[in-house]
Amino acid sequence: MLSSAEIKRSLKGCWLLFKNQEEGLKLLDTSIEGFWRSFQVFFLLVVPMVIVGLGERKLRLSEVVQDPETFSDGTFWAAQAISLSVDWVTFPAVLMVLARPFGLSAGYVPFIVARNWSSLLIAIPYTVNSLFYLVGFTAPGIMVLFSLSVLVVAIWYRYAVTRMTLGSGVSLSVGIVVLDVVLSLIIGQILGRFFGL
What we know:
This protein is mainly alpha-helical.
């Protein structure tokens, strides 16, 4: 299990990486054991993702994206849970296959560790945004606009982490980030259609 000390240290490291300071990597456990343990961050993301999911649910119903009469909470949450789970492991698995051909093997473990932990940092503004929307502090349009703004910053952050951990060039780093985003979108679309959302 992840200790509170490791969580604090890793988040501090991710914050330094966000500020483009490579010494943040020294605060992350980039050993093989640390690599596998970083996947436990998934469980720390459950509560933030439930809050974000509640915000999305409210938005779907208020903006008539879906008919409240036919909307199924069970289906919605099943789709959310499966999508998050599949997304969490798909990109690392795909990149593991591509790492050797693209000469990224040496940086693969540090990159995935940083990616997993940075996901927790990225979740914070999304969670706060959804909370404000859920309690009525912000309108739907503001909530969506802020989410898009956070997405832009998150993509830049992913790019910075990619370059610092993999030591890859601009083109390859951009390609890796695009692959990550596209895989997430594809997974979301496929599961959304499967569950009728």
